[in-house]
Amino acid sequence: MKKIGIIGTGLIGGSFALALKQTGKYRIFVRDNNPEHLNQAIAMGLADGELRERICSELDGVILAVPVNVLPDIAEEFLNKTKEHTWIFDTGSIKSNLARRLKNHPARKRFVLSHPIAGTEYSGPKAAVPGLFQGKINIICNPGETDKKMLDKVVKLHEELGMTNYFLQADEHDKHIAYVSHLSHVSSFILGKTVMDVEENEQNIFLMAGSGFASTVRLAKSSPETWTPIFLHNKEALLKVLKAYIDNLNIFVDLLEKDREEEIKNLLANINKIGKIIDGIK
């Protein structure tokens, strides 16, 4: 059986551990700087044991599922301590900073910049989901910087878990992900704050909150430890997107203030077209 090390036992790391264990082809060893999470992962059967130094030289592969602010240091650590046959990939949602950090590393060819587009708003080992990656997309960035044999192994592993791989350059990935993921999380957090500010004076406001509010604010339950560094490390792209978002909010405010009924209706009708785009992707 192949030996895989997983660094970080949260939602993504835990779900990778669970999915790989279910294939019956892998032994999983985990590391987490949170002892409670580490013990939970092992007790739940997500892993065969803790990843200790002596095991590192035996690993066939390493999956890094840690916050983006600590990811470059941990990537270099495992490139330095694993052998030439060991592939390594990350699961972070920002790629440019990691790509720059690893560009001149002597073992760069063994690393794959990877981002599985999958997840929930929950965190920790108990959030691990069977089949989380089934039918989902995985983005691999700067594939030309990785050895083809290593790249093929990582591509096949994701396919084994039911994912489809797409390839982008890191800067392009970060720009696009700011629109379709990072902006959504900011919007959800700030919507939650706006309503909670009102709730201080109107205790019954949440009694009127239906499924629409719940689905819109769902992402506000996401981990601050995960998302704060994501926002900061993709600041340039995110600020550009937020300014465009604010401009559109101001356009809507202006139409509402002036009672422009037909213009509002036409605006909403044009936006409705996004439903067909999303449905076509699924």
Keywords:
Rossmann fold, alpha/beta, 282 residues, single chain, globular
Describe the structure in your own words:
- With 282 residues, the chain is α/β, with parallel strands linked by helices.
- It has 2 domains: 2-169, 3-Layer(aba) Sandwich (Rossmann fold); 173-281, 6-phosphogluconate dehydrogenase C-terminal like domain (6-phosphogluconate dehydrogenase C-terminal fold, Orthogonal Bundle), CATH 1.10.3660.
- Helices cover 52% and strands 14% of the residues.
- The chain is built from 12 helices and 8 strands.
- The protein has helices at residues 11-23, 35-43, 53-56, 71-81, 96-102, 148-160, 170-199, 211-217, 224-233, 235-257, 261-271, 274-281; strands at 2-7, 26-31, 49-50, 61-64, 87-90, 111-117, 137-141, 164-168.
- The protein has an 8-stranded mixed β-sheet, sandwiched between helices.
- Helix 4 packs parallel to helix 5 (96-102) and helix 7 (170-199) crosses helix 10 (235-257).
- The radius of gyration is 21 Å and the shape is globular.
- The two termini are 34 Å apart.
- The relative contact order is 0.10.
- The model has no long low-confidence stretch (mean pLDDT 92).
Topology:
Blueprint: E1 2-7, H1 11-23, E2 26-31, H2 35-43, E3 49-50, H3 53-56, E4 61-64, H4 71-81, E5 87-90, H5 96-102, E6 111-117, E7 137-141, H6 148-160, E8 164-168, H7 170-199, H8 211-217, H9 224-233, H10 235-257, H11 261-271, H12 274-281
Parallel strand pairs: 1-2, 1-4, 2-3, 4-5, 5-6, 7-8
Antiparallel strand pairs: 6-7
Helix pairs in contact: 4-5, 7-10
